Amino acid sequence: MALQPSLQPLIVAGNPTAPHTLDIFLDYVCPFSAKMANAIQNILKPLLEEGVYQGKAKVIVRLQVQPWHSASTLTHEAALAVLRASPANFWAYSLALFKAQEEYFDIPTANLTPLKIREKLIALAATILPANEVDEVRELLKLKGSANGGVAITDDLKYNVKFARQNGIHVSPTVLWDGLIAGEISSGWGESEWNDFLQNKIKV
Known about the structure:
- The structure is a single chain.
- By secondary structure, the chain is α+β, with helices and mostly antiparallel strands.
- The protein has one domain: Glutaredoxin (3-Layer(aba) Sandwich).
- It is built from seven helices and five strands.
- The protein has a five-stranded mixed sheet, with helices on both faces.
- Helix 1 links the parallel strand 2 and strand 3.
- The longest helix is centred in the first third of the chain and has 19 residues.
- The radius of gyration is 17 Å and the shape is globular.
């Protein structure tokens, strides 16, 4: 499916020019999304980047803010700031954020201000990015001069939210195969289930 050029690093597995597309909607504070992220890293990347499926399909991570979790917006802002400042490290940061996601659940963040949560997210980026890129992430996450202006990557966040809304995405993870919801896909799938799915969908 279409992808805004500045957000090309959201293609996290497979060849960007591959004919088939898995759009996978993930929320950084969703435990099932964390399971799906691990499947992308450990199952889909190897399947799509080597062997019979190489060059046949790609995975686009679609950031799915779920506002009933108060820290969801802030985690997605941080990931988009990393994407802007250090595109090559976006997926590594995403995996680290999923691994640390319990720190951003409702109760652990209940007494933290948005600024404190952003500082935690920047500190996490510092474990992956070089110092100059961490400084850029910090700048991107600073509130703008106007009282309701958001941050520098607010437009990127809006793009992701609008994309999910126009496609009727309600829960995470949700997976689209070539633009249509593939409701049979589960975050609990292992290599066997994914291989069967791809074998059925791709004529190699």
